[in-house]
Predict the structure.
Amino acid sequence: MLLQQIVNTPAAAGTTLITDEEAGALARTTVNLFKVWNLSDAEACTLLGGMSSRTWARWKDGNIGRIDRDLRMRMAHLMGIHKGLRYLFKDPARGYAWIRKPNSAFGGQSALDLMLRGDMSDLSALREWIDAERGAW
């Protein structure tokens, strides 16, 4: 048996970047999402990676400044979670309320409890769990 050389593909190939315009739209949508999730300002800041309360207040007023890569990815995960919940629950209000409800799959914690641990990996894991629940895989 002969071994064949593996051709490496650069990491940037096929990777889509979130443009500044898309990031601004994500930020505005995130503000609206957090309203329907009934998040406190402190919860919102934690989910956004430790954003300052002053910056969050500006966002709520519609003044979105520069958005770094980490924050873009956090918001993308949050939108993925929202999208997955919209697929799982025909009634949007049930999906919004589900975020705070204790869940046996999470050891009695809520999805929000998991997300509030603050790591992007927590957002990613929840998004993957929701996708699996809705049969996306």
In short: The two ends are 34 Å apart (CA to CA). The chain has seven helices and no strands. The chain has a mean pLDDT of 90. The longest helix spans residues 69-88.
